[in-house]
Amino acid sequence: MDLLSLVHIILPLLIVVAAGFAVLLRDLISCTIALAAMSLLLSLEFYILHAPDVAIAEAGVGACITTAIIILAISMTKREEDER
Amino acid sequence: MSEMSKIVRSISNLLLPFILIYGFYIILHGHLTPGGGFQGGAVVASGLVMVLVAYGSERFASWVKEKHLSVLESIGALGFISLAFLGLSTAFFYNFLAGKGGLFGDIPPEGSNPGALNTAGTLPLMNLAVGLKVIAGLASIVLVMGLASHYFKQGGENDT
Amino acid sequence: MSKRDLVGVISLLILVGFLGLGAASMREFGVVDRAYMDDYIISHSQDEVGANNAVTSVVFDYRGFDTLGEATILFAAVVGVIVIFRREVHE
Q1: What residues of chain A lie within 8 A of the CB of B52, using their CB?
Q2: Does A39 fall in a domain?
């Protein structure tokens, strides 16, 4: 097994781990950072699948502008998730 | 959204020129390298949004007016559609500048080559129009939301 | 397990089944079955459009209507956000 196919296996697992952190964490700012990390890993996955156009768009929109919009929305409400 | 600390502001000042140059490079070389109007516009808009988050939306709104961003976005959209209509003598979205010589009119050699900027007809102009539109659109979305978040945080209810 | 959870689990299983069925009948990774359009664009786009980047020549020339729709969607999104938030911005 060469290095590239190993990366093709490891990177989707890291994406799933980051998405799980985004769901499970209590602090909403931490959730947003986990979502941004997921977006960045997804853009890396697009890049190694030979789609650099989509990778640049994903890195710009997903990792920066979405994070900023969600942080603005959190600053309108409160930072901690409610305990049920 | 209020102002962040001095460290964040200094780092965003340091990073802004590099992000802007990279974004405009992606827009202007859209017909040669991966990328194009939307991608480069998203990169430039994320640089502007970084400055907005670091300095707070009030100070950013004193530098970049939301009205001007709307005008820029309309200019981009109108430029794109009018470039599409200019080729209407043959077909909608016909590339009327390609292969005619003059500005952007050269034809590159066949096969793999490093490429020249003076090729591809209307494609660089369309990239520029779409890039302008995406920059202004995404920046104005985040700017308006930031100003409104400041308002909601005060808890004001005084409608006009 | 309540009744609501049971319904959720059953619908999730049905969804996973259909997705697995769809994934099992996909073709080999990276192999196209019909490539007439691809071959045409790869061999003709440098002469007809003059751009080295075939993706940009598809996006802005051969399939310009798609880009027009994308620009319209972005415009509609900006107009919607400004309509919702602007009344609060200018007192």
Answers
A1: 68
A2: yes
Where residue B104 falls (left for φ over 0; alpha for ψ -120 to 50; beta otherwise) is left
Q: What is the pLDDT of residues C34-47, one digit of tens each?
A: 778 888 888 887 77
**What is the tally of structural domains in chain A?**
1
Nearest to B49 by CA among B79, B82, B16: B16
Divide the 84 residues of chain A into consecutive groups of 10 and give the mean pLDDT of each group.
Answer: 84 91 88 92 90 88 87 78 66
Chain B residues whose beta carbon lies within 8 Å of the beta carbon of residue C75 = 73, 77, 133, 137
Give the DSSP letter string of C31-56: --S--HHHHHHHHHHHHHT--S-HHH
Q: Give me the pLDDT at residue A84, please.
A: 57
* Chain B residue at shortest CA distance from A56: B39
> Could you read off the pLDDT of C15-64 as tens digits, one per residue?
999 999 998 888 777 777 777 888 888 888 777 777 778 888 888 878 88
Under 8 Å between Cβ of A18 and A39: no
The residue ranges of every structural domain in chain B are 6-154
**Residue A84 resides in a domain:** no
Q: What is the pLDDT of residues B47-83, one digit of tens each?
A: 988 888 888 877 887 888 888 888 888 898 888 888 8
B16 CB within 8 Å of a chain A CB: no
Chain A contact set for B138 (CB, 8 A): 61, 65
- CA-to-CA dists, residue C31 to A16, C25, C26, C71, angstroms: 26, 14, 10, 31
